[in-house]
Amino acid sequence: QVQLVESGGGLVQAGGSLRLSCAASGRTLSTYAMAWFRQAPGKEREFVARISWGTYYADSVKGRFTISRDNAKNTVYLRMSSLKPEDTAVYYCNTQDRTWAWGQGTQVTVSS
Predict the structure, then answer these.
(1) Bridge partners of 90?
(2) C-alpha R_g of the chain
């Protein structure tokens, strides 16, 4: 059974930066196309970024967020810069197809 653990969220002012981490037990993440998703209050969970052979981003974060992976640490990262209040959400990682059970997510709050 795969367990996903997201971390690195917090409260940051607009324009600031954060780096989120996604660790997994039970699977080798490098063999999967991995993605970050987010869910803001009252909204559906949405795609943010994906990494496989290359990277792909939602238009809303393109140029500000960077997804990467460290295969030695079996971890996927999301570097977020130039944060905006509308980036406030709980951030989750999963395969690009949302194959596994969701982790608890990590809260990102951007103040104006």
Answers:
(1) 39, 107
(2) 13
